[in-house]
């Protein structure tokens, strides 16, 4: 596979976890855009949202995508944050980076997985179930227009997801 493998999808669909597994399975380095922002800013995402607000965080995401497209490196796994597709500029950059996989899970599963910790400021509210539904409605068309492959993960194991992505990417790129 020549290009990068890019994971997009809603919070809790497994982008960071599957990113780590793909990185191990293929021997490609992992770049998690959230982890890169946390390292650059030397503070948690919740702190960035609380002090500078969401748009500042979105600017940081766009900067990370620009640096990844400009370095012209290939054969990396890029796990993104769930809101990275909100900007048209980002959607274009993501497709330039490589094969874009959209991980999907049912709203109830997303709620269960994201309620395990308080790391996601957008869901750290009284009624996250309702917010998940409205955000999914707004974002799903954007994931759809950005991605080359959609994968429903709700009832799949990590290894089934990882194997499915590798097989689809190989098929997409042929024997490259
Ligand atoms: N297919 C899956 N089956 C079971 N648990 C999962 C699955 N995908 C993700 N999880 C769990 O959901 C939580 C959120 O996963 P994470 O990789 O952080 O998602 P994201 O980066 O998309 O927000 C983690 O506890 C992870 O272990
Ligand atoms: O969907 C979003 O807007 C966000 C998703 C988070 O990443 P994960 O999708 O990895 O949880 C993180 O970037 C931030 O809390 C905002
Ligand atoms: Mg993540």
From TrEMBL:
Broad class of enzyme this protein falls into: transferase
Domain of life of the organism encoding this protein: Bacteria
Binding of Mg(2+), residues: 16
Cofactor needs: Mg(2+)
Keywords in alphabetical order: Amino-acid biosynthesis, Aromatic amino acid biosynthesis, ATP-binding, Cytoplasm, Kinase, Magnesium, Metal-binding, Nucleotide-binding, Transferase
Organism (species): Roseibacillus persicicus
InterPro entries (alphabetical): P-loop_NTPase, Shikimate/glucono_kinase, Shikimate_kinase/TSH1, Shikimate_kinase_CS
Protein name: Shikimate kinase
Family indicated by similarity: Belongs to the shikimate kinase family.
Pfam family, one: SKI
SUPFAM superfamilies the UniProt entry points to: P-loop containing nucleoside triphosphate hydrolases (SSF52540)
Cofactor note: Binds 1 Mg(2+) ion per subunit.
Keyword Hydrolase: no
Reactions catalysed: shikimate + ATP = 3-phosphoshikimate + ADP + H(+)
Residues engaged in binding substrate: 34, 58, 82, 139
GO biological process: amino acid biosynthetic process; aromatic amino acid family biosynthetic process; chorismate biosynthetic process
Residues annotated as binding ATP: 12-17, 120
Location(s), subcellular: Cytoplasm
Quaternary context: Monomer.
Pathway: Metabolic intermediate biosynthesis; chorismate biosynthesis; chorismate from D-erythrose 4-phosphate and phosphoenolpyruvate: step 5/7
EC number from the UniProt entry: 2.7.1.71
Keyword Transcription regulation found: no
GO MF annotation, one: ATP binding
Function: Catalyzes the specific phosphorylation of the 3-hydroxyl group of shikimic acid using ATP as a cosubstrate.
GO cellular component terms listed in the entry, alphabetical order: cytosol
């Amino acid at each position: 596979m020549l290009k990068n493998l890019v994971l997009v999808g809603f919070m809790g669909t497994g982008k960071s976890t599957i990113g780590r597994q793909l990185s191990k399975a293929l021997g490609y380095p992992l770049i998690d855009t959230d982890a890169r922002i946390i390292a650059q800013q030397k503070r948690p995402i919740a702190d960035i949202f609380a002090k500078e607000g969401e748009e500042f965080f979105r600017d940081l995401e766009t900067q990370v995508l620009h640096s990844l497209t400009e370095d012209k490196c290939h054969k990396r796994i890029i796990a993104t944050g769930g809101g990275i597709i909100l900007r048209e500029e980002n959607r274009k950059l993501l497709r330039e980076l490589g094969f874009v996989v959209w991980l999907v899970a049912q709203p109830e599963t997303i709620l269960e997985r994201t309620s395990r910790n308080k790391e996601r400021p957008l869901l750290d509210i009284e009624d996250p179930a309702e917010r998940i539904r409205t955000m999914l409605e707004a974002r799903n068309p954007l994931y759809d227009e950005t991605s080359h492959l959609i994968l429903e993960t709700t009832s799949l194991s990590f290894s089934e997801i990882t194997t499915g992505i590798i097989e689809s990417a190989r098929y997409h790129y042929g024997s490259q």
